[in-house]
Amino acid sequence: MTTVESAAPAAAWQATGDRIEALITASAASGAAARERAEELVRLVVDLYGAGLERLLELLHERGALGDDVLDALAADELVASLLLVHGLHPESASTRVAKALATVAPNGEATLVGITPEGVARVRLAASGCSSAPLKAAVESAIADAAPEVVTIEVVQPDAAPVIPVGSLFSRVGPAPAEAP
Question: pLDDT tens digits, residue range 101-156?
Fold first, then answer.
């Protein structure tokens, strides 16, 4: 098999995932027991491949072949990164993945990660608010879902309010503060 043949395009492996889901759904037509068996089969295969991936990473690490450059390449490859995510083996933390995703959809800092709670709540600060932020919020939610499926909720945090200068302080250097009306 040549390198070109072995590199499955993203659409091909995503279509495979869709087909697996369709087959599991179709198995429900044969009853609950058939669906349960199909789901168990998928779980077992996923667990087997996950154990194989984990062992592969251990072997690479033991032999000193799992340096930062290799980890970066694994994290950058869409297919490999998604498999590592499924098995809890991704080399980057959820916070790092979310921050990178936000930098992609909001490259000028329109969305910043405040933090991710242990419960899986990602707190994100958007620079804009109101109706104008709706498209950005949708893009942020989609990017976070793709980058960190362990995030279960996204909470938008209000931007820091601009400081308010008391009116009386505006006159402090010009002269006495204006008298209040009776």
Answer: 999 999 888 899 999 999 999 999 988 766 667 888 899 999 999 899 999 999 98
**Sequence spans of domains, the chain:** 3-86, 94-157
Closest by Cα among 41, 118, 139, 171 to 180: 171
Sign of CA dihedral 56, 57, 59, 63: positive
How is the beta sheet containing 121-126 ordered, strand by strand? Answer: 111-116, 121-126, 153-157
Contacts 24+ apart (CB under 8 A), 134-137: 136/105, 136/106, 136/110, 136/111
CATH classification code of 94-157? 3.30.300.130
> What does the alpha-carbon distance between residue 141 and residue 181 come to, in Å, rounded to a whole number?
51
pTM score: 0.67
